[in-house]
Amino acid sequence: MFDKLSRSWHLVKASAAVLRSDKELLVFPVISAVASLLVAATFLLPIFGLGLLEGGEIGPLGMALGFLFYLVQYFVIFFFNTALVGAAMIRLEGGDPTVADGLRIARSKIGVILGYAAIAATVGILLRAIEERAGFLGRIVVGLVGMAWTFATFLVVPILVTRDVGPVDALKESVALLKRTWGENLAGNVGINLAFGLLTMLVVLAAIAVVAGAAMVGGPKLAIVVAVLAAICVAFVAVVQAALSGIYSAAVYRYAVDGQAPAGFSGGELQAAFHPK
Fold this sequence. Notes:
This protein has 277 residues and is mostly helical.
């Protein structure tokens, strides 16, 4: 357990070193988050306006609208993730990327990004439909399937960035590459998410304590101001996590393809980030 935590921490530090070199990489998850919120707001208005959630049953129109929501949302997420990974690839190869470089790479892949978003949207809407009809055990199974899907698609975006392939071939290559090289359990990526999950929890707990103290000392107005600042802190942690995860996936893919650890990353740590089958 301590070895895993130590290895994960070293991977976080190596990814953070890349992020410190190119702080512009933070722009991509920020834009992605803002765009995702706009997409959600755009779809929530007609959903509530048409009463599609009333009665507990989602009809054909609701399913169609749900699929469209998933498609647009995933497209936004994958587009800016592609921009992030593309810029990170440039940095790992010794270059000095800009935000424009990342967006240029993403625009050049817009067709395959849309195809990948359609696949992810189909999987998402199917899992959601199964979850609504399944009992407690069914929801657990759906959660496990969702986790397996996340692991299986871990290297799809780096593959789309560096290779001229379609989304289906990228999915196949992602699965084959992980299985052939190290196995299926991406302990390193889980470790990064765990580290930031714990950090987010600590920030939230501290924020609750500070907001409560502000309410007692300065009243509701001060409490609202402090709560807004706390929300910004939590959002910043999420943005940094997204940036580090993109950098990490780019580093793992480069190591998987040519066996050479990018600058700042230990080859042993990258290889140990995967449990063999």
